[in-house]
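Collaborator request, handled under Task 6.
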Amino acid sequence: MSRTLRVPIFPLSGALLFPRSQLPLHIFEPRYREMTRDAIDGGGQIAMIQPQRYDDDNKAPLYGVGCVGEIVGVEEMDDGRFNIVLLGSNRFRLIREIENDTLYRCAEVDISAFNDSEPDALPMIQRAEVEREARKLGDALGLAVDWAAVARLDDEMLVNAIAQVAPFDVGAKQALLEEISLNGRADLLVQLMQFHRMAVNGGVEIEPTLQ
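Structure tokens returned to the collaborator:
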């Protein structure tokens, strides 16, 4: 049985939000300042979703899956900009966009499309593989990472945090978001990290896949 919400949507390429994960955002465009103000004064929710292409007129077609975020941190600046933090609550399937008179887009979404209850822990061998490939990718990219802090993350936070920050293309990020289970997401993440590392080490240029 579907459970629908009407929510403001923030189409942003490469920005993934997962249940129980946080996403900091700097809000500066007028339409998204309006969206943030309305969300703060209203239900406190903003739905993150990726557009299928970059489009200046804010009419790009959207992917079919995103995640609703609850505003859990707000800093309003004197010039009208905001720094906010979203906490993911539910992934959703997009039902339809809603006509409205706001500068930003709104949609009706189904938040019963995924079982987003807390997952079971990963098998130890799978957890170790995720950490190992993350280290290899970090080294290939020349990143300075506090691996001791990474090792203290729980399995879900580890997988989702890497998915959020890794330099994958939009299509790969969307596949990670749509993966039903944490185990499946961890397997896909390992494959993507291996591919990206080989491309970096081999000097292969990775073209973004905007589908």
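The cover message to the collaborator said: "Residues 15 and 165 are 9 Å apart (CA to CA). Strands lie at 4-11, 22-27, 45-49, 65-76, 82-98, 105-110. Please let us know whether this matches your experimental observations."
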